[in-house]
Specification:
CATH superfamily: Mago nashi
Structural class: alpha+beta
Strand content: 25-35%
Distance between the termini: 42 Å
CATH architecture: 2-Layer Sandwich
Largest sheet: 7 strands, mixed
Low-confidence stretches: 3-21
Length: 148
């Protein structure tokens, strides 16, 4: 009886902590927090590939405008750092809206309105913006690696 009670207590504790640590998932339509949307578009076929990172860590991917799927979740520290880096790198000061045949983009949606950066093959984004863009894609590459 004593061991059964201890086992029940242990299982209840594990269950309680597992329920407490789960985060609410949102859809694209009902999420109202900050988000980073980035990707590229254009080319001969006029395609677009984009990722959307919610502040809660959810990540969505779209290869076609009508096909958007949640691919994974980033950890809280990583997402916090992504938002902080926008200010740490002074990206808000950079104004670039120079689309081309192939256009790279980063859109930030926040309470005080959107901030957008877009550049084509003739655009001249700062080194910081290029590094930030490559960092975002690097994170997505790691998320999409198949697990063994």
């Amino acid at each position: 009886m004593k061991y059964g009670l201890l086992l029940l207590l242990a299982l209840s504790t594990v269950f309680w902590f597992s329920c407490k640590s789960t985060q609410k998932s949102y859809t694209l339509e009902d999420y109202e927090g900050r988000r980073i949307l980035f990707g590229n578009r254009g080319g001969f076929a006029g395609g677009e590939m984009k990722y959307i990172i919610f502040e809660n860590g959810q990540v969505y991917k779209s290869k076609r405008r009508t096909e958007i799927v949640q691919i994974d979740r980033l950890d809280e520290k990583t997402v916090k750092q992504l938002f902080e880096n926008i200010d740490n790198l002074n990206l808000r000061e950079e104004k670039i809206m120079d689309r081309g045949n192939l256009t790279a983009f980063i859109h930030l949606r926040e309470e005080n309105g959107p901030t957008k950066w877009e550049w084509g093959e003739n655009g001249k984004p700062s080194q910081q913006l290029k590094i930030y863009y490559k960092t975002l894609f690097g994170l997505m590459t790691n998320l999409e690696k198949p697990t063994k």
